[in-house]
Amino acid sequence: MVDGLVLALWRFPVAGMRGEGLRSSQIEPHGLAGDRRHHVCDPEGGVLTPHDVPRLEGWTASYPFNPDGAVYPDRPPPFPLIAGAGGRWRWGDPRLLAALSRDLRREVTLERDAERPRGVILSTVTPVDALDAAGINLGLELALPAGGWAGRELLFRDGVRLRLVASRADGPGIEARVVQAGRIVIGEPVTLS
Predict the structure, then answer these.
(1) Torsions phi, psi of 98, nearest 5?
(2) What is the pTM of this model?
């Protein structure tokens, strides 16, 4: 029995920056492949968010040489291309660090964390065109189940299973943990168990 469909997929290479829309993506044990693996931090290593520095949302991160989720769990994520403040830089370029610090009006550092598990954030209510701004990975056409989301599982056509944990306190998303990895494609059916 099909309960809904995948309407949209978004990946955010750098936490807090705008991301990129995908047609398909690998879901790995740590979350959506390549998602939120890079961070802009303060000099002490604290991760900065748009709540701390609203100008961070004016920047966009993408993996242009790894389209449609071509990031693989057995390899480290690639270095993203960052666009903002009138330029484009590859992650690790010292000019990026200078441009970010200047635009954000504070000293920053750049960190990469490929190991820490991250939830897959999904939404059934946010309009598809607003998913990027909201930090949502999966836009689903799916009705709210009686009794709520927590503890339920989403089953996708090719075997991906996500366990719904809770709604995010800072936005419209519902956090899910990966139970079974695989690939998700826009338009594929999803079943809620």
Answers:
(1) -65, -45
(2) 0.89
Burial class (CB in 10 A: 0-12, 13-18, 19+), 106: middle
CA angle 166, 176, 37 (to 5 degrees): 120
* Strand bridging mode 138-141 / 4-11: antiparallel
The radius of gyration of the chain from alpha carbons, rounded to an integer in Å, stands at 17
Q: pLDDT for 93-152, tens place per residue?
A: 999 999 999 999 999 999 998 777 788 999 887 666 666 667 889 999 988 777 777 788
In the chain, what are the domains? Answer: 4-12+116-192 (2.40.33), 36-112 (no CATH)
Q: Are strands 60-62 and 24-28 parallel, antiparallel or unpaired?
A: unpaired
